[in-house]
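Quick start: read one record
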Amino acid sequence: MTSVLIAPDKFKGSLSADEVARALERGLREAAPHTHVTRLALADGGEGSVAAACAGRFRAETVIVSGPTGRPVTAPVAIDGRTVLVEAAAVCGLGVLPEGRKAPLTATSRGIGQAVQYALAGEVDTIVLALGGVATTDGGAGLLQSLGAVLVRADGTPIGPGGQGLADVHTADLAPARAALAGVDLVLATDVDNPLLGPTGTAAVYGPQKGASERDVRELDAALGTFVRRLDAAGVPDASRLARSAGAGAAGGLGYAGMLLGGRVCSGADYFLTLLGADALLAASDFVVTGEGSLDEQSLSGKLPVALARRARRQGVAVHAVAGRCTLPAERAAAHFSSVQALTELTDQDCANDSALSARLLTRCGRTLGDRWIGGRADETAQAEYMDRAD
């Protein structure tokens, strides 16, 4: 009996990782009903990180914190013994904006700090911040303020919310926030390698997704620059160097704030693959189906499908990808995947925002995989071709 591991990320705006996996399984079983299928819903630090963690050893609890516009939101956190995982997207993500109205200049990460405080109230020695999918570009200032950092104007009053408020920073003192996390291992799980500032920084690259106009992007980048300079003037160690570091621009600058607090950056994809025991599941599989909403150049920097494919290759297991869309040249995709199916090649309709259509198309992709790679073609031949191309 052929064993298949179905291990996708979410299709953003359409389906959760688990919904993607179930739709693929339906089609695969229609074509190859005797296949042994294992589903593994994955995440890389963005939406769905708590759910992915809870598919492993973690359990979920809920906290009530400030959302990106200051309104309360109820967000899940994941807990395993003395480790707490906070999903930034669940606290201050685009998906929790009231009525979906974006606030690119004023959205705040204050709720992240409140969730961290919740974790610190227990016996915790590790806090994982899953960074991705946020509505904020405030350099993590809201997080820092929640933990006691002093960020004030020239008149001594606290700066306003969001990246816009950073333009008014006159005095900064991060000592209280650093003291709050003393003795805690702060893990920053992200697959974003952008610095904080400049043309590849958080405002320029991700600001437009959060509703920022060209003028807003310039204002936000300038305000973040002011923030860094004020931290330098206050004697904060390595403030400028950290702003240039890979990952500082993650989640609107939450990566930078985490680094200032002594946090360490790790690959979100690899963190969750290890957490969920992916290597053991790969060893027990004949081939793997993975995917995400968009397979593109960013995918090659270590996002989930490619990270999973690299682990699978080490074990000689072929990987097939399904994506909402694929913009990778065929030869670059073939270095990692035995086959790639894109939903945009199956319909002229907009499936990115249509969950029912996406699910139907994914089921169709599952049938294709079952017909070609299980029902009609020897697994050994397919895997041999895969390894030849990869080498």
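Confidence is low (pLDDT under 50) at residues 376-391.
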